[in-house]
Amino acid sequence: MPSSEKQDRPESLLTVVIAFAANLLVAVAKTVASLISGSASMTAEAAHSWADTGNEIFLLVAERRGAKKRDRKHPLGYGRETYIWSMFAAFGLFTAGAVVSIWHGVTELGETGPAEDVVLNYVVLGIAFLLEGTSFLQAYRQAHGAATKRRVPVLRHVLQSSNPTLRAVFAEDAAALIGLVIAFLGVLLHQLTGLAVFDAIGSIAVGLLLGVVAIVLIERNRRFLVGEATSPELEDAVLTELLRRDEVERVTYLHLEFVGPSRVFLVAAVDLTGNELEDHVAVRLRRVEASLEESQYIEEAVLTLSIPGDASLVARRDGEVPATVRDGTVEDVAAGGAGTLRTE
């Protein structure tokens, strides 16, 4: 395994571990504060943090199971398990976070009375903001590095990335920081006005925020599981990688499909240079396949011969390939799922 891939997975694992530790500490603190103060917003935030803590366990499982080597039963590897377990985490965020928060807020709408133990709530919210911020900075640092290489905004990279654990931690931590601001406003308005309805509304708002984030995460994982069109950037990169090889004269068909974070299944029809006998051509094809599979991002490559009359594929970006592709880090280049590159 290339060194760059060895470095990428530990970084994702570190991101998840930091998020787990931060969420666990925050969940305990919020629970204590909610029990003492009875604040609906704090209760919603406690449910949010416990949901995030449980989700990190799913993401740790996703990292571990998705990293398993391919075998006879799974010739394309176990990478898709990462999307399945990440989807479990997203469902957990929706049910244990969004539903509980909204339900609790609705039940508290009719409550009256002044705010109690607001100082404790503010202290806990402040500590939670620091811990959640630390976790978010780690996720942001990882995402920013890859986004900078791709020359795209960080948010776009996170949404497109084939790494579901990075996307989940980034989205959950961002939602956590926004949720803390909402909870703070709910507690503050309750204190200033004496109307408990603001606290209840804060709980409902936190729940709606978590629901939106969960639906986005579920949808992105679903797309990677069922397949979606790869980006032109990635298709150009792989096409150029094929054409730069001395053995390949032209490419007439190219299919790419993500089978895990930063891992693709490649199928191509190529025309080899020269005009050799069939058995010699078969050996050359296998040699090209083996060389392609040495790349960190190609799980398996399957090549077949082009039909003479088929049109040649051409890169849509004048053959220019980003340096990150030449270095073999396709995760820095594109996201996407399944797709076929076609002639212009």
TrEMBL record:
UniProt keyword terms in alphabetical order: Membrane, Transmembrane, Transmembrane helix, Transport
Transmembrane regions: 12-33, 82-106, 118-140, 169-189, 195-218
Membrane topology value: Multi-pass membrane protein
Cited Pfam families: Cation_efflux (PF01545)
InterPro entries with a match to the protein in the record: Cation_efflux (IPR002524), Cation_efflux_TM (IPR058533), Cation_efflux_TMD_sf (IPR027469), SLC30A9 (IPR040177)
Position of the signal peptide: none
Name of the protein: Cation diffusion facilitator family transporter
Organism annotation: Curtobacterium oceanosedimentum
